[in-house]
């Protein structure tokens, strides 16, 4: 599913131009307005701050577009939108962003650096709201402007390519995301060298893409290098380091390196809380990831408490129709499923699936995740007739979106095989188990816990079919994996 692990986009506030070049009366007036704007922002009174920025806009509207007064207005609108966004005031932030774009387009035309920068900010903002089609359209335009203005190898081109790649990755469009991330890494390394946090961020995003398509051999060195760069360059509570720690923790969790994953997640969460406060959506993301890991470790009460806290934050900020709310509902339902609290799990799974369909469309991998999980619940309730069509739909979605050899395809194959196994449809179950094993061996390696699970399932099936010798070999291999002996 679309992970709540997500890159924190640190807002690059515009430096305010000096008022030294203004006429004295204008300079004094605008300095007064700036001081008042700062005071109102400090009090979280964004409406009054907006009103004062609007006053500044009206008083400078007859100046030339490149006049310092007009630059000052744009900087203030951009800064105000960024503050609102960081405080999760999304409706208000959108109003300010759209106003800023309108002002700049009227003054500067469509192919100006400031237009590209504003489009980039709006596109990232839409992505954070799971408004992916809108985000892709805006960011494609931002990339086009950056290439027209700067050429193909500029930092602004890398930023636009990176942000558009993240939207495609979120949509499950990995074939379009990959070249954009690779381009961003190449431009950034040529520009800043091999040990800069900007390169770490670009590598982080490319590594997450490789993880999403099951190329863990390519993902791990990128994510480990990202952490190494940021640990050397940044303070321990810097959000950029928190992001790279969280990404590497997610990979280690998927690879079964659970102790290392826990340490990384806890470090990331602590840094995020210091930087953003306890009620921010990025804190909810960290809580969600740590809760999933605690569930895997069997620390179920702690996991439930973290999920509840994450859900409360996200519903307060986003309402109940956001993708991150659905992801948390799905994860909490998974915990209830683990505890056999099926009556609590089912409505959460159904609600999450409904949101995934609405936000992502019917063919997205997140929808497949919701279908797969709801089907597993139905199977445990011996509702096989309800479970089978969900699993077949999930398998089709994942094969089309992720390819035939993705670990998530193996997960659905294992689930469908288990359903057939339970119904004693052995001839249908066996090839699915074997295909799942082959995928997991290739994608995850020979020591992954998920591989052990499917080996155990096939061993039990073969024993029931009378193939005792192969069943014994598979069971021994699974025990070796569980014991850490590979």
Description:
With 486 residues, the protein is mainly alpha-helical. Among the domains are: 193-274, Alpha Horseshoe (Serine Threonine Protein Phosphatase 5, Tetratricopeptide repeat); 277-361, Serine Threonine Protein Phosphatase 5, Tetratricopeptide repeat (Alpha Horseshoe), CATH 1.25.40; 372-486, Tetratricopeptide repeat domain (Serine Threonine Protein Phosphatase 5, Tetratricopeptide repeat). Helices cover 79% and strands 0% of the residues. Helix 5 (113-128) runs parallel beside helix 7 (155-170) and helix 20 runs antiparallel to helix 21. The chain is elongated and about 90 Å long.
CATH arch. level architecture of the domain at 372-486: Alpha Horseshoe
Structural class: mainly alpha
Determine the fraction of residues in helical runs and give it as a percent range.
over 70%
Number of strands: 0
Beta-strand portion reads under 5%
- The CATH topology of the domain at 372-486 turns out to be Serine Threonine Protein Phosphatase 5, Tetratricopeptide repeat
The poorly predicted ranges are 1-24
Largest sheet: none
Rg from C-alpha positions? 25 Å
How many distinct helices?
A: 22
Question: CATH class of the domain at 372-486, anyone?
Answer: Mainly Alpha
Order of helices and strands: HHHHHHHHHHHHHHHHHHHHHH
Name the average pLDDT: 86
CATH superfamily of the domain at 372-486: Tetratricopeptide repeat domain
Distance from first to last alpha carbon: 28 Å
The shape is: elongated
């Amino acid at each position: 599913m679309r992970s709540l692990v997500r890159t924190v986009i640190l807002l690059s506030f515009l430096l305010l131009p000096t008022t030294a070049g203004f006429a004295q009366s204008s300079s004094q007036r605008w300095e007064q307005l700036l001081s008042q704007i700062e005071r109102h922002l400090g009090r979280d009174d964004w409406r009054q701050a907006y009103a004062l920025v609007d006053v500044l806009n009206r008083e400078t509207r007859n100046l030339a577009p490149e006049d310092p007064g007009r630059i000052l207005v744009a900087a203030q609108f951009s800064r105000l939108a960024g503050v609102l966004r960081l405080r999760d005031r999304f409706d208000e932030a959108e109003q300010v962003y759209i106003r800023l774009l309108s002002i700049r387009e009227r003054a500067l035309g469509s192919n100006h650096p400031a237009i590209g920068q504003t489009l980039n900010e709006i596109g990232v903002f839409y992505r954070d709201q799971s408004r992916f089609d809108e985000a892709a359209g805006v960011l494609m335009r931002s990339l086009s402007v950056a290439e027209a203005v700067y050429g193909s190898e500029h930092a602004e081109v890398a930023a636009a390519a990176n942000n558009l790649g993240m939207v495609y990755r979120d949509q499950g469009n990995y074939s379009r995301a990959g070249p954009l991330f690779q381009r961003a890494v190449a431009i950034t390394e040529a520009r800043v060298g091999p040990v800069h946090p900007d390169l770490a961020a670009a590598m982080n995003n490319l590594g997450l893409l490789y993880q999403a398509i099951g190329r863990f051999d390519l993902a791990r060195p990128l994510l480990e290098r990202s952490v190494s760069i940021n640990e050397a360059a940044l303070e321990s509570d810097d959000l950029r380091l928190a992001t790279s720690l969280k990404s590497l923790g997610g990979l280690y969790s998927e690879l079964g390196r659970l102790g290392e994953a826990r340490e990384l997640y806890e470090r990331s969460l602590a840094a995020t809380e210091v930087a953003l406060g306890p009620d921010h959506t990025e804190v909810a993301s960290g809580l969600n990831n740590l809760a999933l890991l605690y569930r895997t470790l069997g620390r179920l009460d702690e996991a439930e408490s973290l999920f509840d806290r994450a859900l409360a934050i996200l519903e307060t900020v986003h309402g109940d129709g956001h993708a991150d709310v659905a992801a948390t509902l799905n994860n909490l339902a998974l915990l209830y499923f683990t505890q056999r609290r099926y009556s609590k799990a089912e409505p959460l799974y159904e609600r999450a699936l409904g949101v995934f369909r609405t936000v992502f469309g019917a063919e997205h991998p997140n929808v497949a995740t919701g279908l797969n999980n709801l089907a597993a619940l139905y199977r445990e309730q011996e509702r096989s007739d309800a479970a089978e069509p969900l699993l077949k739909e999930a398998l089709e979605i994942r094969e089309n979106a992720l390819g035939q050899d993705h670990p998530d395809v193996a997960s659905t194959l294992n689930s469908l095989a288990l359903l057939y196994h339970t119904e004693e449809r052995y001839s249908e179950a066996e090839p699915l188990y074997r295909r799942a094993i082959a995928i997991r061996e290739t994608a995850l390696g020979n020591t992954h816990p998920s591989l052990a699970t499917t080996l155990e399932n096939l061993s039990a099936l073969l024993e029931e079919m009378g193939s005792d010798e192969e069943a014994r070999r598979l069971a021994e291999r699974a025990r070796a994996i569980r014991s850490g002996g590979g």
